[in-house]
């Protein structure tokens, strides 16, 4: 009798182990959906006005001749004189960069399109950075007198805009925060944590049409006014609402 009881106990223990080792039955967990986050989006703009302190200008020499050799020789003479004048004005070598040297034939035709002759055109241009704007008008006068006959548009800029950008960004954030506070107070809700911040900077330089070489014919400096430029930052902030 005792052996039968022990046998039954062994069977029950074995069955319990098998059940415990068997595949588990998945349980169902109900997750309550979170209510949508209420937010408010505001945009602020910050502006800073600056006076340009640097200018960029392309100065070129264009020569034409029926002989390619003579066209190049004439261009070299004039371009060398122009570069010497630029250096004498206190422009450092690092601020003078050749951006174009080209030579190409150009057909001369009559009214019927018949080719009468061919001339060779040579262009030599340098990109000049002027860091002292008080010298710009006099510099342009002297390079024209020395042989430059192709002056492109003048671009004015500010060499270091980092402090102004910081100021514009802070002003933009302050304006956005002010808008958010006014709107929430008017609607009876409270501002929560900032969810996202995005911004964009706009620092367009000023580009002016450069005076023509003929404008310097009288031998006097053409007045150049840099004016002012504006840096603008736009900030968009998304706040949670309480």
Protein described:
- This protein is of the alpha+beta class.
- It has four helices and nine strands, in the order H-E-E-H-E-E-H-E-E-H-E-E-E.
- The chain has helices at residues 2-21, 68-88, 136-145, 162-187, and strands at residues 39-50, 54-65, 96-109, 115-130, 150-151, 154-157, 191-202, 206-208, 229-241.
- Strand 3 and strand 4 (115-130) form a beta hairpin.
- The mean pLDDT is 86.
How are the elements arranged and paired?
Layout: H1 2-21, E1 39-50, E2 54-65, H2 68-88, E3 96-109, E4 115-130, H3 136-145, E5 150-151, E6 154-157, H4 162-187, E7 191-202, E8 206-208, E9 229-241
Antiparallel strand pairs: 1-9, 2-4, 2-5, 2-6, 3-4, 6-8, 7-9
Helix pairs in contact: 2-3
Properties at a glance:
242 residues; alpha+beta; six-stranded antiparallel beta sheet; three-stranded antiparallel beta sheet; 4 helices; elongated
Gross geometry: elongated
Number of alpha- plus pi-helical segments: 4
Strand content: 35-45%
CA gyration radius, whole angstroms: 38 Å
How would you spell out the order of helices and strands?
Answer: HEEHEEHEEHEEE
Biggest pleated sheet? 6 strands, antiparallel
| Overall pLDDT score | 86
Name the helicity range.
25-40%
End-to-end Cα distance = 75 Å
The low-confidence parts are: none
How many β-strand stretches?
A: 9
Quick gist of this model?
The protein has 242 residues and is α+β, with helices and mostly antiparallel strands.
């Amino acid at each position: 009798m005792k052996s039968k009881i022990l046998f039954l106990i062994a069977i029950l223990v074995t069955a319990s182990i098998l059940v415990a080792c068997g595949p588990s039955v998945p349980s169902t967990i109900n997750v309550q959906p979170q209510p949508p986050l209420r937010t408010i989006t505001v945009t602020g703009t910050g502006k800073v006005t600056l006076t340009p302190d640097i200018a960029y200008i392309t100065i070129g020499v264009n020569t034409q001749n029926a002989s390619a050799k003579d066209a190049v020789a004439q261009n070299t003479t004039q371009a060398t004189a122009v570069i010497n004048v630029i250096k004498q004005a206190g422009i450092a070598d690092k601020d003078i960069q050749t951006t174009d040297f080209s030579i190409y034939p150009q057909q001369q035709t009559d009214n019927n399109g018949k080719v009468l002759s061919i001339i060779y055109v040579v262009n030599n241009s340098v990109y000049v950075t002027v860091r002292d704007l008080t010298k710009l008008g006099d510099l342009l006068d002297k390079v024209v007198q020395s042989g430059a006959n192709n002056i492109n548009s003048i671009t004015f800029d500010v060499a270091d805009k980092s402090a102004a950008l910081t100021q514009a960004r802070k002003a933009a954030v302050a304006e956005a925060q002010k808008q958010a506070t006014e709107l929430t107070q008017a609607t009876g809700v409270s501002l929560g944590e900032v969810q996202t911040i995005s911004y964009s900077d706009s620092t367009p330089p000023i580009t002016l049409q450069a005076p023509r070489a003929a404008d310097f014919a009288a031998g006097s400096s053409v007045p150049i006014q840099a004016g002012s430029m504006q840096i603008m930052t736009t900030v968009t902030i998304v706040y949670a609402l309480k």
